[in-house]
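2024-03-11 09:14:02 INFO worker-7 job=invfold-0412 stage=load source=structure_tokens
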């Protein structure tokens, strides 16, 4: 890479103005492809790494799908993986700015940015390669936010509902107390190979005025007429009314406990704003009960999806403004890196505040647009003028003070 830049610079000195321009354009084409490949590869690695780490922490919260509800490891992975597109929406812009910063640091540490500047290359030529990569990332984020993420969240809701409503899979696990819903507890001592359940305990206190407890020697789940029943044999029912002092105990030979309210999965699911496609947010059904209840959530989600694909482009502008200017090896790039991180974090924080506040006040939604376009305007101006932006002295002194204090504390400990 350095050899290519050096040859471009030397040939530039030997040729006239026409030949000089041609060589610079030719060299920039090679540099652009190199930057595009390097940045895109780094983006893929960072995105995959961060997504995997966060997904594991998320998946561990739903480990009860296997432990208490009898699902296989494949079902567990499939269900929890459906949340990955939603994670990508937040992680992708951050992963991209880290990839841009890593590429710029590599170019700077090898003095390639200085050679490019000495060869007479406009800052726009180098920036164009990063911005082109940002456009590709923005298209990817747009697809995920508009279709892939809502589709996966919808599938996750349907699948999780079916799994958690599968009473047969839930209550046939021996030796576990399982709560199907608030006030309804099941326990099975043993399940025989022929499907017969042994040692059944059912505690039903869903009705505050009357609770009952069922004990049976054995039972079996039966499907009849599209409904599910737990047929209990050789047991007793203990009923206790709220105003009665003593419970009523009734022995039975056969008793049918209706499970239809828990096993049906054909009920209509309602999807919140986050699980709607973008075109549904743009033109919602006025008669939609969810939209009638929370119209502000639909509005805030729509504006969030409009702005989200712009964050990779805004982040690359911030990173390039602070890290793309040529610096010698004696100039400190650490503070420029810190400033870029602070700028990216501030812009994303404004976006979060705008979305949260926009659900209550529509005027708050304009903050994210103002912040993003301000970054574009000021950033393009700085790149055009070739400004070397340095953090203010008070910021440098504060960071140096904190770093020195931390170093002393770790050294003393």
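2024-03-11 09:14:09 INFO worker-7 stage=emit residues=413
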């Amino acid at each position: 890479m350095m050899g290519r830049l050096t040859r471009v610079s030397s040939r530039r000195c030997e040729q006239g103005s026409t030949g000089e321009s041609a060589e610079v354009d030719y060299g920039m084409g090679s540099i652009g492809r190199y930057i595009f490949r390097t940045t895109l590869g780094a983006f893929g690695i960072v995105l995959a790494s961060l997504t995997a780490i966060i997904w594991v922490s998320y998946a561990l919260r739903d480990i009860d799908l296997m432990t208490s509800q009898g699902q296989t490891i494949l079902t567990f992975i499939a269900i929890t993986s459906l949340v990955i597109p939603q994670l990508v929406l937040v992680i992708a812009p951050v992963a991209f700015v880290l990839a841009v910063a890593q590429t710029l640091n590599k170019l700077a540490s090898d003095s390639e940015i200085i050679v490019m500047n000495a060869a007479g290359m406009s800052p726009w030529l180098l920036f164009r390669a990063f911005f082109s990569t940002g456009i590709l990332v923005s298209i990817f984020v747009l697809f995920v936010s508009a279709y892939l993420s809502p589709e996966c969240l919808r599938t996750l809701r349907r699948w999780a509902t079916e799994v958690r409503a599968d009473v047969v899979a839930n209550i046939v696990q021996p030796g576990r107390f399982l709560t199907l819903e608030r006030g309804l507890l099941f326990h099975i001592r043993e399940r025989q190979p022929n499907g017969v359940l042994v040692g059944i305990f059912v505690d039903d206190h869903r009705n505050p005025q009357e609770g009952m407890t069922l004990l049976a020697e054995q039972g079996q789940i039966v499907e009849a007429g599209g409904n599910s029943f737990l047929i209990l044999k050789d047991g007793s029912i203990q009923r206790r009314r709220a105003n009665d002092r003593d419970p009523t105990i009734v022995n039975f030979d056969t008793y049918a406990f209706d499970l239809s309210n828990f096993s049906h999965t054909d009920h209509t699911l309602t999807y919140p704003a986050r699980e709607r496609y973008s075109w549904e947010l743009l033109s919602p059904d006025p008669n939609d009960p969810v939209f009638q209840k929370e119209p502000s959530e639909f509005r805030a989600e729509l504006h969030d999806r409009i702005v989200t694909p712009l964050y990779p482009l805004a982040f690359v502008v911030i990173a390039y403004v602070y890290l793309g200017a040529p610096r010698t090896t004696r100039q400190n790039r650490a503070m420029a890196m810190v400033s870029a991180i602070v700028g990216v974090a501030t812009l994303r924080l404004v976006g979060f505040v705008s979305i949260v506040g926009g659900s209550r006040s529509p005027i708050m939604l304009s903050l994210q647009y103002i912040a993003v376009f301000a970054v574009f305007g000021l950033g393009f101006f700085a790149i055009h003028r070739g400004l070397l932006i340095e953090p203010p002295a008070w910021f440098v002194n504060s960071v140096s003070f904190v770093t020195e204090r931390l170093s002393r504390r770790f050294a003393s400990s």
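2024-03-11 09:14:09 INFO worker-7 stage=report msg="Strands lie at 177-181, 184-191, 197-204, 210-224, 227-241, 248-258."
2024-03-11 09:14:10 INFO worker-7 job finished
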